[in-house]
Specification:
Strand content: under 5%
Number of strands: 0
Oligomer: single chain
Distance between the termini: 50 Å
Helix content: 55-70%
Number of helices: 5
């Protein structure tokens, strides 16, 4: 699967996806959630957890802090955070505003 994903993406050059996206989708399809070809046991769960940790680590390495610092000075983060909390607050069942 890990070798087939870059090969398949090479066949479709206009489809600009990271290979990890295709690997995750194929893993979901093969797993017991859809086709049931793979069975989960303790070893697979440990490997899945390590894979997730590695994926998040690599995603953290891709963050450009200089880009984030510039946006923070402009106030984009505050506006986005404020609108997110507002939408969560008003969509909550316990919201005082009806």
């Amino acid at each position: 699967m890990a070798f087939a994903a870059p090969f398949l993406l090479g066949l479709f050059p206009r489809l600009r996806l990271p290979s990890i996206v295709l690997e995750i989708v194929v893993g979901i399809v093969i797993a017991s959630a859809v086709l049931g070809w793979a069975e989960l046991d303790a070893a697979i769960e440990v490997l899945a957890l390590l894979g997730l940790a590695f994926l998040l680590f690599l995603a953290g390495l891709e963050v450009e802090f200089e880009h984030l610092k510039g946006r923070a000075r402009q106030g984009h983060g505050q506006r986005r955070f404020g609108s997110s909390t507002r939408s969560i607050r008003y969509s909550s069942p316990q919201s005082p505003v009806r």
